[in-house]
Amino acid sequence: MNLEQSNPAYKHSLDCVHCGLCLPACPTYQTLAQEKDSPRGRILLMRAEAEGEIALSEPSLGDALDNCLDCRACESACPSGVQYGKILEAYREKLARLPSRNRRARFLGSLLDNLIASKSLHRLSMSSLRMAQALGLQKLATVLPFPRWMKEGLALLPRIPKGSERCPIAPGIYEPTGPKRAEIALFTGCMMETLFGRVNRAALRVLQAAGCRVHVPPNQGCCGALHLHAGLQDRARPLVERNLRAFPKDLDAIIVTSAGCGSAMKEYPSWMGQASEFSTKVQDFTEFLANLGLGFTPRSVPMQATWDDPCHLCHGQGIRKEPRRLLAQIPQLKLIPLEHPEDCCGSAGIYNLQKPALAHSILDRKVKDIQKTGVRILITANPGCHLWMESGLAKLDEDYQVLHIAEVLAKAL
């Protein structure tokens, strides 16, 4: 068996012709101006490891892959169709198995399992953090004798929404408000359910108004996207299997309000064959509604706003026109375009906690781009981007508001 047959990531890496068209799109290359922190540089390092020129434990390889946000902007820019995300995640999985990194991988996996994937612990941790923020304890913790990494992490955590905003949807079946046009399910996720219950509730109202009979299965949960991006495929597998069992089979679509979750769920079949039927039904909220049609006449929403494309919506799923088409149907809603709407904001799951300096540099560029529009309302469609950009805008003197597109459409009901 040759190297291409035994190492699918290596085979995909050979599609890269090192043309450099990915460089202007890569947020870390734009920030650090180092070839090893560009997509083609990382591919060369991964290829060198596969060919035996460097060891998997070579620090330059691990550092370069750790610095990557996995935003997929390089995939949109690449004329050769290089599947960079698949190559990166395969190598992160290999790195996580190294003895020198195993302890770190176990810690990260436990953190994701307990504070993200576990509904009860996630809800408890977010409620506790919200209380700590309200009492000013988060700021106090940064001056106490805690480890530096803990202080930095606490300082970076964005504002946790109030309890009323986080209230999740009760499991059940919700009937359409008019003639039935589709039988669907709503994926409520983990971050979306626990931090952005208000968004899922808004999406439910819009879907009902569009003529959808909506299932909200009781046993659904985390999609495993953060695990997959970190190379923890084995920990993601039981989460995927739980969702495969949770959702009814006879659905027209499974609707996702988080761009990062939707991108990961559509890619399940690349590493888990039994998820193929499930993944074919996964659609982003905007993708589904743009194709189905609103089914109601939107009322006026007098508002000036700008739309920011989440990386895993535009680059990961190729969805760009659909959100704009939906927003364009709302009378008196004026969209002022961003100069760089597809640039990463620096959130990238928990990247902003792992690489705070880089994440802040990338966020600063995004905030300046938003400021140039002159508007005070930002619309997006991913929870990590939502919280991270909200935290960046909160530092400005102006009063900014960040909304999910489902909330804007709900205003038009």
Describe the secondary-structure layout.
Elements: H1 3-6, H2 8-13, H3 27-32, H4 39-50, H5 59-67, H6 73-77, H7 84-96, H8 99-117, H9 119-134, H10 137-141, H11 148-156, H12 163-166, E1 172-174, E2 182-187, H13 191-194, H14 197-209, E3 212-216, H15 225-229, H16 233-246, E4 253-256, H17 259-266, H18 276-280, E5 282-284, H19 285-292, E6 303-307, H20 311-314, H21 321-328, E7 333-335, H22 351-354, H23 356-373, E8 377-380, H24 383-393, E9 401-404, H25 405-411
Helix pairs in contact: 4-5, 8-9, 14-25, 19-21, 23-24
Features:
413 residues, Fumarate Reductase Iron-sulfur Protein, Chain B, domain 2, Rossmann fold, five-stranded mixed sheet, four-stranded parallel sheet
